[in-house]
Amino acid sequence: MATKKKGGPAKISGKSSGKLPGKLKVAVCGASGYTGAELLRILHKHPKVEVTAVTSERSAGRSPADLYPQLHAYSGLTYEPLDRKKLVKKADLFFLALPHAASQEAVSFFHSKGKKVVDLSADFRLKDPAVYEKWYKTPHTALKSLGTAVYGLPELYRKEIKKATLVANPGCYPTASILGIAPALKAGAVETMGIVVDAKSGTSGAGRKADQALSYCEVNEGFKAYGVGVHRHTPEIEQELSAIADTPLRVDFTPHLLPVDRGILSTMYLRIAPGHGNTDISELYARAYEGEPFVKVLPPGEFPNIKDVRGTNRCLIGFKVNERTGTLIVVSVIDNLVKGASGQAVQNMNLMMGFRETTSLEDLALCP
Amino acid sequence: MATKKKGGPAKISGKSSGKLPGKLKVAVCGASGYTGAELLRILHKHPKVEVTAVTSERSAGRSPADLYPQLHAYSGLTYEPLDRKKLVKKADLFFLALPHAASQEAVSFFHSKGKKVVDLSADFRLKDPAVYEKWYKTPHTALKSLGTAVYGLPELYRKEIKKATLVANPGCYPTASILGIAPALKAGAVETMGIVVDAKSGTSGAGRKADQALSYCEVNEGFKAYGVGVHRHTPEIEQELSAIADTPLRVDFTPHLLPVDRGILSTMYLRIAPGHGNTDISELYARAYEGEPFVKVLPPGEFPNIKDVRGTNRCLIGFKVNERTGTLIVVSVIDNLVKGASGQAVQNMNLMMGFRETTSLEDLALCP
Amino acid sequence: MATKKKGGPAKISGKSSGKLPGKLKVAVCGASGYTGAELLRILHKHPKVEVTAVTSERSAGRSPADLYPQLHAYSGLTYEPLDRKKLVKKADLFFLALPHAASQEAVSFFHSKGKKVVDLSADFRLKDPAVYEKWYKTPHTALKSLGTAVYGLPELYRKEIKKATLVANPGCYPTASILGIAPALKAGAVETMGIVVDAKSGTSGAGRKADQALSYCEVNEGFKAYGVGVHRHTPEIEQELSAIADTPLRVDFTPHLLPVDRGILSTMYLRIAPGHGNTDISELYARAYEGEPFVKVLPPGEFPNIKDVRGTNRCLIGFKVNERTGTLIVVSVIDNLVKGASGQAVQNMNLMMGFRETTSLEDLALCP
Amino acid sequence: MATKKKGGPAKISGKSSGKLPGKLKVAVCGASGYTGAELLRILHKHPKVEVTAVTSERSAGRSPADLYPQLHAYSGLTYEPLDRKKLVKKADLFFLALPHAASQEAVSFFHSKGKKVVDLSADFRLKDPAVYEKWYKTPHTALKSLGTAVYGLPELYRKEIKKATLVANPGCYPTASILGIAPALKAGAVETMGIVVDAKSGTSGAGRKADQALSYCEVNEGFKAYGVGVHRHTPEIEQELSAIADTPLRVDFTPHLLPVDRGILSTMYLRIAPGHGNTDISELYARAYEGEPFVKVLPPGEFPNIKDVRGTNRCLIGFKVNERTGTLIVVSVIDNLVKGASGQAVQNMNLMMGFRETTSLEDLALCP
């Protein structure tokens, strides 16, 4: 690339080559999919981080820039197979964006070697291995690591994340949904029964693959529900909401596939608890997220668009108290690849490492 | 146009010019918007109908073919202002696709002159003028016609429509939602409390107009809720569901704007009534819609895509009994401009005139 | 399906079951892709045709309605493997939508048995087997059939098609491009050197398959050129334009991939021939396509949109004489799956069988 | 906004409020459209710049954050009417994104007061006032400023821009097209006759406004040419290419409207000059753009996608020598709002101010 020879910004060429003194060395395992690519995009802006290794079985020997022209700055980096012993020496913090189940072993290996780990799979999100096995149809065999894992939703567990060595990065739907429900539920303003989470996600949430059902002509101008009543993010949402409510609860969670690249919008229906008809929901939510750098509560009756947060780590929340029905309707939006995955992973890394929490996550969204 | 001079199909050129003996003469009032254009598209295929007049204040003097290249077959027809006295002589059946409130006067005029009317506005859908005034912020002044109007959902009121002289064509969201809920509610299989209707519509539902909020760059790659808790289709859904349940009920209805041209998908959450845990929902829905030419119930666990029905008058319904939560989740899809508006209007006309109900509504959807 | 039991239109259920007396029996070989599905969609409307067999190796045993919910009317028909001896008894006319090269054998078999054939592959479009071999990298081994094949562009070869037993249905890009260039070239109004064809196609042109490069997130919000200088439609365009000009000529043909489902727009640059600066191009094109049912020439300075013809067999042509540069710029649009494939195939069948040419091809496009 | 109260990054809140010592004060005139918003998005990342004023007649009194939720960081800034005397005191450098003609007066005022100006309108791009008047139908009345304006394409005029006080920021189509043609033309490898520029732009190029023709349902699933032979970017392209070729030349330039938010792809056809059949185009282009931070030449036969550069200031160039026809085909892509407008404006500011040229323009594109 011509830009490499001279005149290119030092930062770009330096990012992918030698090890810079004073920077945190990080590896991204499973870096050929959309989530991994998004991690690389965000880390490119991070002044305190150097990506020293990327893995991909299928694309070993190629560069991120070969797979994604957008990642041209990483032309000096080469995918390698996930050889744990080799990798463990190359980095101090590991991001894992591996398929579910595959993550268990790798995470516990790096973790046992004293490395910090942010796992973007579902393997360490569910505290109860029996629940994991029930929904993921495979036993959990890394119970020791599981016991120390912290659920990486900073708005709920910032203190724990700061001290964590293993963070289970939340799912995209749970992030949007839990942030939308938590304040009302915590305050007891809504009932724990009859919670409905009707969620819609952009197509990048399905990952990068050759799949006829995900081909352009099938998705474009279409819209459908999927995984109705059986989606694996259900127990994750229930676990966190149950913890907040301090009582076991269940939710109806229905995901839908949107014909857009990015974005999740979650529409939630909560029954106002007796005696809370006059609760000031606006005040309640504002207070809950006061000082939060990435969560914004909109004025009553205003609702967010997924386009408002595209490419950013932000979560916008709108709400309406429907007095006719006694329902609190909450709508939250995030970018499924950022706050719903890689951006939140970087936020967690920032917390774990004592970096400023918003580092490399401050850019504004494209408009349009 | 070259095709008009010779060789063009007789049907095309004949449709828009002289009056053909033996054909029903119909006028389309408010024919310059998407709903009116869709009526013209469908009526073009109708062997027993001749469109003799189209009205538009803004586009008077121009032809439907000028506004829509797709309507090239109507180049011989010219929009005229809505002069009721002139129009009343031109047709035997009137479709009105006028803005709400504007429809009241025109409908009652044509109706009083013994003409058949299918009104696509909301003006004659709500039986109770007080409810109309509350939601539409204007009094109802055509009470006589209102008293005779039949709600034009053939799956519920086929018998009445056949005898009707004034049919109030249902709204797009109500059509999808009522068809999805009716069988379970009628059978008493679900409760009348806590009904949630989370609906998503393509952008054509907003009509054809110059509006920055509807411009391509604002809608594309976006998704948002709107009219939360206050959308005017709410009382229409409630009226019909209350009638079915034989008790007043309320619903939480939340519409969303999809970045597609056409299609409505409605996701509905219904609480299984005590004692109905074992009801065979599949059987119940199949029986309810047996013989219906435009409604299809999918096998349990299968869910429809709006793309499956684009350009057609069909309604597809999928469902899932979520035993973990005691909820019946129903998903229905229609094309908002066809079964949600103009196609259903033609279906109603067919019923009113004794034509075969499916006439000009039998084409298959484009795939893709 | 409930609609089958009673009340459904006879035509729908009849189409896919028993053999109707007096109807032409047709088979569609390779009916699981978009082109085959589009054939089924169009033939569903055809009053003189009965589809008696559909083939697909991959989907044998399933129904078109299983693969495409849009084709619900074909639930009674089952894909079978392409067993030529079995098939030859089932139909009188064969549409073949097979991959290139695979078509040669099947076409010549059915053809040799006295069946009429419309081949939608490229195998019988190029008259010169050497040119075929050069561009398709495989020899042509069905020379006898090739010798009798007629290039199925009715606007150029209507007379020959009427008498043909084997029609080679044109490619999508060639259809749009040849129709746009033919009148000017034939009249000698433009030079044969320096012809540029810059064409853009919707994604359905790539067929239905699992291919990462065609996945939604790769195509959406994107646009790119492909096959620059090497696309196989080049020799087809050159063959027909050379025949029109009566001299060998070459073109620069560049296809691009549009993020839409359907449509081809071809922008063509032709150098005005000396002495033709004052030629009335409008008159020339109007005369060339006078009486053509599917081609429309727009007034000077007006240009068509692919959306105007979606789902129809029409070709719209706009043009501009750029006096500053001495260039005639022509823009033509078609639906790549209709006039660019299956619609034109039905048009050819209509001509071959003596049916009215426009039968089942008269519907108006959806707007929007 | 909760994020403002505490914990928010200092940079965000500081950007839009008080004047920071040591930062360049800039004003954005006409900051309510997409181009202005894009400037604000990019400047938000700029460590050496402070936006001290934004103007908009229509939105005076509101904040950029009111119009664009994406610009939340600018909630402390308020649009004001363009009062030149008031404004001139507020900033040292002025970006003007005003409508054509309106820019003339404002630019010459700020310029005459010793301020640096980057004008994003077309008013100072054409050197010859007669050409300006011919294409823009209005006389040029700021001839003094016009005489000193530098055409702001850094790859051609970097040296001049560094010393300029008034930079005329190039149009989006000209940027993509000139960068694609310049190397071959400068080297004399292609002829100056018969140049074809077939360009396609995303819809944001049309600006933010209420316009039925730009509404979602009109643009989506559509594609069309516009301004054929008469688009105002034609003389701009011709001026620059003529200067490069050192002889007056003309081009056929045809723009098209793409159903995407952002991106321009320009496909260019150039006739290989006699004796240049063996010229190494790859080497020629590589050398021409050696060291350029934002231009990348792809290997022969590879072609760029607009999606590769979305949100970035990059220009990717692919090419193919078509030996069959003697044509060099070049394809270039940019983001019309970045390298085609606001990003290039910031690049120009960086050069004028002696900042590092790539400052705030180094982020990678979103994928997908």
Main traits of this protein?
homotetramer; 368 residues; alpha/beta; Rossmann fold; Dihydrodipicolinate Reductase, domain 2; 7-stranded parallel β-sheet; 7-stranded mixed β-sheet; 14 helices; globular
Describe this structure in words.
The structure is a homotetramer. Helix content of chain A is about 30%, strand content about 20%. By secondary structure, the first copy, chain A, is α/β, with parallel strands linked by helices. Chain A folds into two domains: about 1-170 and about 340-355, NAD(P)-binding Rossmann-like Domain (Rossmann fold, 3-Layer(aba) Sandwich); about 175-335, Dihydrodipicolinate Reductase, domain 2, CATH 3.30.360. In chain A, strands 3-2-1-4-5-7-6 form a seven-stranded parallel beta sheet, sandwiched between helices. In chain A, strands 9-10-8-11-14-13-12 form a seven-stranded mixed beta sheet. In chain A, strand 13 and strand 14 form a beta hairpin. In chain A, helix 3 (about 35-45) packs across helix 14. The radius of gyration of chain A is 20 Å and the shape is globular. The interface between A and D is large, with 54 and 53 residues.
Total count of strands of chain A: 14
Q: Number of domains in the coordinates of chain A?
A: 2
Work out the helicity level of chain A.
25-40%
User: Largest interface, per-chain counts?
Assistant: A-D, 54 and 53 residues
Q: Supply Rg of chain A.
A: 20 Å
Largest sheet of chain A: 7 strands, parallel
DSSP strand content of chain A: 15-25%
- Going by CATH, the homologous superfamily of the largest domain in chain A would be NAD(P)-binding Rossmann-like Domain
Spatial gap, N to C terminus of chain A: 30 Å
Quaternary structure of the protein: homotetramer
Net shape of chain A: globular
Structural class of chain A: alpha/beta
CATH C-level name of the largest domain in chain A? Alpha Beta
